[in-house]
Amino acid sequence: MIQGRNIVIKREGDRLLLPTKIRKEVEVPANAPSNAFLMCRIISYDETSGTLNLKRSRDLINDSHFIIAIEENSDLLIPLNIIKVNFVDLPSIFASSNHSQANANYKKDFSYKASLLREEYETHKEREENRKVIPKEKETINIQIELSINELKFLDGKVCFEHYISQIHRKASFEIKNPFIKKEFDSIKNYFPKVLKINKFAMGIQFEHLDGKLLNHECTSPHILMINDSIFELVEDLYISDYIVNSSSDEIFSLDEIALESSKKIGSDSIKDPNWLLNKLLASGKTKHYYHLRYLSDKHTSTAFNLKLTGKPLSFIFLLTIPNGFCLIWETYSTDEATYVWKLNNLDSSHLESIIEEIVDRIKWLRNKNKMDYLKEKPDNFTRIEHNYFGDDLGFKKWKAQLEDYIFKK
Prior knowledge:
Order of helices and strands: EEEEEHEHEEEEHEEHHEHHHEEEEHHEH
Mean pLDDT: 86
Strand content: 25-35%
Strand order of the largest sheet: 3-2-1-4-5-6
Radius of gyration: 47 Å
Distance between the termini: 133 Å
Helix content: 25-40%
Low-confidence stretches: 90-99
Largest sheet: 6 strands, mixed
Structural class: alpha+beta
């Protein structure tokens, strides 16, 4: 039965909170007292209008009484569709002899429960204060992870990466020192897994954390430490193969330009030297024109003309000094195409540069599927020497004899 029940109401601004576990509130009526907490007796409940009629008691109460009232009245009030409350002016609920003993018992029970609540609050407060005194200890964690090469960033003297640490609920940055590593390696880092024959880089991370903060940390990797001089030569070989031997460029470059550009790109001091790069390109076993290219590179007049390279496919343009002047020779790296030879007879060095530029431009044109048209013209002071790959020397001796017969004859 709801009528005659005592409840506690809490005021928050322009809202009155009923003592229910699920928040149930109504608008403060015009005749409501200004107290923060009100102990009231339920006079009646109008189901049609959803109005709860209350009579206020003069007892002094606080938040602890409201908490107890929630436990006492929640099940009673939640099912009701209470839209508003109304404070009615009736004789004091404690004046009636019929209710005096009941109210006395209610007050006594309320006082006892409030006392228990205060005791529980003080005990909880004491536990919290004691917990604050005891400092938290930092925790040391060791984890093993594997990362792909694309997750690594190469910088001078180190490799950096980010990894999510569940203990601190965020990503953290880590680095592994290696004095051999340069920032330029980041552009060729895809070669390192190939040379090391691994799919992913193993990492060991040790770190300390406290209250979600990362403290000291250290990271190691046996794979990162393997990047040194002993494997870098293989990395250079892969780079040279991809970006020079298998170049798809239609342009013609000097060997000096390619060496300098490559050195800047991959951070290799060795590749900066054109002679070193040429020796790499002409290493024995890499091309069936090995002997031919070695012969031409030894005879090349580098003081008058920088050795030039073309791509798609790789080929070389050499300048040789002959008795009557000079000879420009175009030779492919390993394709079966013939050697193209131009004699520049009775030509002094002052006119050499412009004539060479004309022939280099002609070679660009020839490489664009115009060789047959050029041969039909039967140009002067020009010949081509077909390759014959029979024998241990892959036809070199025969080729050399034909070349020298042409360039040295008057």
